[in-house]
Design goal:
two-stranded antiparallel ribbon, Arc Repressor Mutant, subunit A, mainly alpha
């Protein structure tokens, strides 16, 4: 499964907003600069995030965007779904009896990929913006990367 730039950039921007807002609105241009994301692309994403109820805009001097709810209560899955990024690993449409095969049947691995999509959704639903900001998202990749960086002990 591949997450598009839409989902990744929306999460990156929301994490930035959570980290740097400190109770004040943050200008979209600041987020764009820090995250190296096109300002016009962020404007499109933030329109969807606002419609999804995840952020609110503040107009006027010193205006910008703020989280609509706390970083603890905002899940990564909410962000991805708000920008219309499906969390699925199958070629078929979820819940459809029609499969991806030319005869409209499901392939032999359909259940495997559907369950992978479910597990991804469960994981992303368990991670809050605050978890990401506080670097509490630890997994095997961190252990693996740390072991590559450490020199082998002399025997």
């Amino acid at each position: 499964m591949k997450l598009s730039t839409k989902g990744r950039y929306a999460v990156m921007a929301m994490v930035d907003l959570a980290k740097f807002s400190q109770g004040r609105p943050v200008a979209l241009a600041e987020i764009a600069e820090r995250q190296e994301i096109s300002l016009s692309y962020l404007e499109q994403l933030f329109a969807k995030l606002r419609r999804g109820g995840l952020i609110r805009s503040v107009r006027g001097p010193g205006g910008g965007y703020m989280l609509a709810r706390s970083a603890v209560d905002t899940r990564v899955s909410d962000i991805i779904l708000a920008v219309d990024e499906p969390i699925r690993a199958t070629r078929c449409h979820v819940g459809s009896p029609i499969g991806c095969q030319s005869d409209r049947s499901r392939c032999l691995t359909h259940d495997l990929w559907e369950e992978l999509g479910n597990q991804i959704h469960i994981f992303l639903s368990s991670v809050s913006l605050d978890d990401v900001v506080q670097r509490r998202v630890l997994g095997a990749s961190r252990v693996f990367n740390r072991s590559l960086a450490m020199p082998a002990a002399a025997e």
